Design the sequence.
């Protein structure tokens, strides 16, 4: 099924205006033409893009991090993640930084699990999900001092079957955490059956334009 793939496409954009600039992202109103329709007007969140890390220990458990998320008024179980908000930073470098800062961990083995558009109807945000293995703790003297919502982090190593049950029961609702658990489950099942594991190398290209690139195009 090599022909099954998303297709990058840039329409003719006849107007693009910044209607709100926030601390992390902006809202733009764009008017554009498609071959099938013209004069379309859409508001979109111009997002920097992000990375996330599925950490797998030697016991086959995945690391979940509980963090308060104000828009949904809940403490959600997630995986370590962060924004691509440093201009020119390589996504793998960002993932390693986030893993160290959020979980006090380093990893010797990295692979790409997936690239996702999280809310393509209203946001340019894409996220690259990595699988990190062969883990080691960051020395205490080098650990990151967490503040704000991160100061309330709660950590838990969870077996994949337990995490799958929690997703099915509606007890884990963060979409990236759900994707991480499902992807890790597929990896472990393939390894147990001796089948090829469908991951990608860390330098695999991202095929869709992410929010950072879109912002660069707009500013050019």
Sequence:
């Amino acid at each position: 099924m090599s022909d099954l793939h998303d297709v990058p496409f840039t329409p003719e954009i006849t107007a693009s205006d910044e209607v709100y600039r926030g601390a992390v992202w902006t809202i733009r109103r764009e008017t554009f033409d498609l071959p099938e329709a013209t004069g379309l007007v859409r508001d979109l969140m111009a997002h920097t893009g992000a990375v996330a890390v599925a950490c797998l220990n030697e016991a086959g458990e995945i690391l979940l991090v509980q963090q308060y998320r104000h828009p949904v008024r809940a403490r959600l179980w997630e995986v370590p993640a962060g924004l691509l908000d440093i201009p020119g930073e390589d996504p793998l470098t960002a993932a390693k930084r986030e893993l160290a800062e959020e979980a006090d961990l380093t990893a010797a083995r990295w692979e790409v699990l997936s690239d996702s558009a999280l809310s393509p109807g209203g946001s340019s945000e894409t996220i690259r999900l990595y699988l990190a293995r062969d883990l080691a703790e960051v020395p205490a003297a080098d650990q990151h001092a967490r503040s704000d919502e991160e100061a309330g982090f709660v950590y838990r190593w969870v077996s994949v079957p337990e995490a799958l049950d929690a997703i099915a029961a509606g007890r884990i609702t963060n979409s990236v955490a759900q994707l991480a658990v499902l992807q890790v489950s597929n990896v472990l099942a393939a390894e147990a059956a001796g089948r090829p594991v469908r991951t990608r190398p860390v330098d695999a290209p991202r095929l869709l334009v992410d929010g950072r690139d879109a912002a660069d195009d707009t500013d050019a």
Remarks:
- Residues 214-220 have pLDDT under 50 and may be disordered.
- The radius of gyration is 19 Å.
- Residues 111 and 201 are 5 Å apart (CA to CA).
